[in-house]
Amino acid sequence: LPPGTGDIPLTLAQNVRAAGVVLISTPQDVALADVIRAKLMFDKVAIPVLGLVENMSSFVCPHCRKETPIFAHGGARTAAEKMGIRFLGEIPIDLAIREGGDKGVPIVAGAPESPLAEAFIAVAKNVAGAVSTQVLKAPRLPVIGAQPRA
Predict the structure, then answer these.
(1) What pTM was estimated for this model as a whole?
(2) Is the predicted pLDDT of residue 145 greater than 80, yes or no?
């Protein structure tokens, strides 16, 4: 979804039964301010926030291999801790991610052994764990025709 608390996220929150939401942010303060407002909105509409992902966490130069935090680094982890939600991981900014998306071949399929793919897989595992935890917390509905346990 687009960042923030505009019409699209609010309309979906009001009309779709969701197990939870994953918030995505770049690390800089201005983006994180939108994430904080989004969390408050989801709290008000009773949709659990599964966690926060830091997108564009850093850039590794393909020539010199030096890592540069273009948009800062670590802001999403700090914000997640302050909001009391899970930090689900970091996704770097990299040309290969954009190129794979343009070709319809996600980095996880096109270069599954790459550090970029590993970052996406780590986030996916953390999201799956958060969903599983949320499902376990959900109230159980009785099954019609089921026999009560002794």
Answers:
(1) 0.83
(2) no
